[in-house]
Amino acid sequence: MINELVAQIEKKDAPIVVGLDPMLSYVPEYIQKKAFSEYGETLKGAAEAIWEYNKGIIDATYDLIPAVKPQIAMYEQFGIEGLIAFHKTCAYAKEKGLVIIGDIKRGDIGSTSTAYAVGHLGKVQVGSKEYAGFDEDFVTVNPYLGTDGVKPFVDVCKQYNKGIFVLVKTSNPSSGEFQDQLINGRPLYELVAEKVVEWGEACMGDTYSNVGCVVGATYPEMGKILRKLMPKTYILVPGYGAQGGKAADLVHYFNPDGLGAIVNSSRGIIAAYKQDKYASFGETGYADASRQAVKDMIADINGARANR
Amino acid sequence: MINELVAQIEKKDAPIVVGLDPMLSYVPEYIQKKAFSEYGETLKGAAEAIWEYNKGIIDATYDLIPAVKPQIAMYEQFGIEGLIAFHKTCAYAKEKGLVIIGDIKRGDIGSTSTAYAVGHLGKVQVGSKEYAGFDEDFVTVNPYLGTDGVKPFVDVCKQYNKGIFVLVKTSNPSSGEFQDQLINGRPLYELVAEKVVEWGEACMGDTYSNVGCVVGATYPEMGKILRKLMPKTYILVPGYGAQGGKAADLVHYFNPDGLGAIVNSSRGIIAAYKQDKYASFGETGYADASRQAVKDMIADINGARANR
C-alpha cells in the first residue's frame, strides 16, 4: 500500500494529507440546520451533518491530494451513528481514488491487536464468508505494548497489502513526558524508531516500508534525527498549521529523493473558511475555502522543499 | 464511580471482572446457526450471535460479579454491526446492575482524547441536546502521549462521575520491550505509575481514586512494587488464567484492606464450556459453565487472599 501512497504523492506532487477531524462546531450552520431538520438534534442528525460536510470537502479537494486521514475519535464521540459516518467517509474517499489513513491509534495484546487489524485493514471470517469492517488502507498504531502488540498489524498488512504508521514522537506538548525519557543516553522514541525499522523490514514496498511512523511537526530537531535513523520509513507528520508546525521546519522530514514524509493538516484545511484569510469564501463556500487552503499548503511545503 | 465499583466488590465478595471478549469461535454452534439462519453469514449475523452469547453469560453470572469488561476490539472487528453488539452488551449489563469497564485502550492528543472520553464516558452536545454515545463506567487508557493525552479523560471522569484504568505494565510477553526500560535506574512503568498517582489525586473517591491502572497478572514481582507505589490506585489485573497468572501470585496486588485490585478473566470464564473441567455442561450449558467458572475463580482468588 505504501507504493500506492507514494505513487499518488508523486502524481499529484503533493506530500500532504487532509485530516478529516470534524468537530460539529466546524460544520457550517446551514448544513447542521438541514441535517437537524431531517433527523432532529440527535446523534443521527449530528452524524449526517458531519458526513455532508466531509463529502463537500472531499469533492472539492480529491483531485489535489493523495490521501485523507479521518480521526476516528471525532466520529466515535457520536456513538454508533458517528461511526457510520466514519465508515461512509472512508468508503466515499476511496471511491474518489484517495488513500485512507485511519487515525485510530489502536494497540493491544496480540489476539486483540489482531482483531483491530482485521477490522480496520483486513477481513473477518463469518462462517464461509469474509467481510471488511472498515477497510482503511493505513491505520495509526500505538507501540506501548511492544512487538507482540504491533506484529499482528504487520501480519495483516502483509496479507492484504495495507500499511501502518506507528507512533514514535507525537506532536502534543506533553509527548516528551515518557517519549523523551533517556534510556542509556538515548530517548525512548529512538528505541521505538529502531523497532519500527525492524518491524518494517518484514513488510517492504518498492522503496519504502509499509510500516511507517508518526513524528510531530512540532519537534523538527527530533524529526531530523529520526529521518536519518529510519531511511526507508515513511513519516506521517501531524502538527502542521494549527498546532504550530511550519513548512521550513519540515524539510528535514523528507529524504533527498523528495519523498519519505506526508504532512497532515486538519483544522487548517477543513475549517479554513473560519480563518480571516479565507473568510471571503463565506460559509456556503467552505469547501472552496478548503480547496484553496490545500493549494496554499502544497505551495508552502513544496516551496520549503525547493529552498532546502 | 470507583466508590460504586468498590461497593459492588465488597457486596459480592468478588474482586473479579468477567472479560466479555467474544471470538466467534467461542460461540456455541447452535447460537451461531440460529443467528445465521435469521441474518445469513453476515456481519449482522455474527454480531447477533455474539450478543446472544454475551446475554446468556451476563444472565448466568450477574448476581455473582461486580463488573464486566467488554474488549471493544472483539466487536470492532465486525465493523458497525459489531459495535452495535458492543453497545447493546454494555447497556444490558448495566441494566443488570453491573459496572461496565470498556477495554478500549484509547489515548491521543488533547482535543482527540476529549472526543474519546466524551463518547465513552460522557455526553456529546448536539445542538441543544446531550447524548451518551457508549456510556461505559470506566475505560482503559494508553499513556504513551503523556499528561495532555490522559487529562481530558480525567476531566470527563470528574464531570460525569466515571473512572479510567491507565496502562502501566501490560500482561503480554513483550510488554517489557519499552515499559521495562530503565530511566535513571527505574523502569518506565514506574514513571507512568507516578503520573497515574498524580492524575488520580485530582479525582478521588472515598478511599481510592477514580484513576486506576492496569498491571498484568503475569508480572507479580512488579505488581508487588507497584501496589506500594500507588496505595490509592485500584489495579485492574488482566492475565489471570488463560494467559498464565495464578491466584497465589496476585495476593500482593491487594492492599491490607483486602481491596485495591480487580482481577479479570476472559476466555477462562466465557469459553469455560470448552475446557475439560467444564465439558460436562455441554454446548447448550455454556452459560452455566461460565457461572461455575466464576464461582471457582472467586474461590481461587479469595482463598489465596485468605492464605496471604
TrEMBL record, chains A, B:
SMART domains linked to this entry:
OMPdecase
List the InterPro entries hit by this protein, alphabetically: Aldolase_TIM, OMPdecase_type-2, OMPdeCOase_dom, RibuloseP-bd_barrel
Q: Which reaction does it catalyse?
A: orotidine 5'-phosphate + H(+) = UMP + CO2
Domain spans labelled Orotidine 5'-phosphate decarboxylase? 15-281
- Alphabetized GO MF terms: orotidine-5'-phosphate decarboxylase activity
* Pathway assigned to this chain's UniProt record: Pyrimidine metabolism; UMP biosynthesis via de novo pathway; UMP from orotate: step 2/2
Name the top EC class: lyase
As for family, the record states: Belongs to the OMP decarboxylase family. Type 2 subfamily.
Family matches, as PANTHER family: OROTIDINE 5'-PHOSPHATE DECARBOXYLASE
Protein name per its UniProtKB record: Orotidine 5'-phosphate decarboxylase
This protein's gene is called pyrF
